[in-house]
Amino acid sequence: MRTIENIFWLGTKEIRSFFRDFVLLGLVIYAFSLAILAQAHSYSQEVHNASVGFVDEDHSRLSRRIVQAFLPPYFHQPQPIAERDIVPLMNLGKYTFIIDIPPNFERDVLGGRNPAIQVNVDATMMVQAGLGADYAQEIIMTEIRDFLSHAEGAPLTPVNLNVRIAFNPNVTTAWFTSVMGLINSVSMLAIILAGAAIVREREHGTMDHLLVMPLTPFEIAMSKVWANGLVITVAVGLSLWFVVRLLLGVPIAGSIPLFLLGTAIYLFFACAIGIFLATIARSMPQLGLLYFLVFLPMNMLSGSNTPLESMPPWLATAMQASPSTHYVSFAQAILYRGAGIGVVWPQFAIVAGVGWFFLGLAILRFRSTAAAQAG
Fold this sequence. Notes:
single chain, mainly alpha, abc type-2 transporter like fold, 15 helices, elongated
């Protein structure tokens, strides 16, 4: 009971110290609000509300089907224009795409003569132009195939592919980047806050006071873990509900309390890493350099930026030892696919086990550091 009481009161001191540090408080607020909104909107990888004009010189049933297939949210309502206006309108930047359907297009398609459709693209709109050209080609080819499959005497294809995208039907980038940004902020802040708590005690001279008190390194370390973990867990819950779900409109398929439980377990590991680094660093600049050496590989190779399947097999296998990989995996399983505890508990156990390992290393380093200072 004495150990639990010491951990509790040291943790409350840490929370009070955190709320008096307006720099760290502002960093937490920014990381779980504006940073997530900026990441969700700045990493857009899909066409959205692209302006498109049509020159329909055929006026056939097939050309009308092609025009009507360009629908929101990818494209604005197609606007009819004259052929002589293509170049002036493109020069003025009025349209990102202008599609010119030639005369007798339907007749040539039915006759098997492979007519061409001209797609004019404003390349100054780089993302919209690059992806939108592929979208336009796919839409046009799909409409032609559907038209031919219903035409009299046209041979039917033996195989038709029907692609269905699960969990994110419109492939909206913000649905992915917002949640992954939230996860990356958890790793970043947990390491920084826990490490800064130890370094701040040393720089302010209060670490000497703690060492002469009847406290063990375990009690000091666990007080930092639960205090900083509680702050970040509350911030994650508020950010997930108000920023991700309400402001960005990302649907949450699974249990938010289960995700917060997994986040708390992962925070145990991340705070242990921060404390371990703080036992090595002697100042905040040194802690910052060590943080980059640890956080960047964990973040870049965890699966939040690129999937593990695209990595070399040996690297993907090696990253299974990193709790950040399992955190990304069970976060996606819970929030996107609605997985329950029966699916994600092995990953919870792995993260907790690695967390205890690094906490043990941090306590050993803490004791050696304290003995050196006492000597």
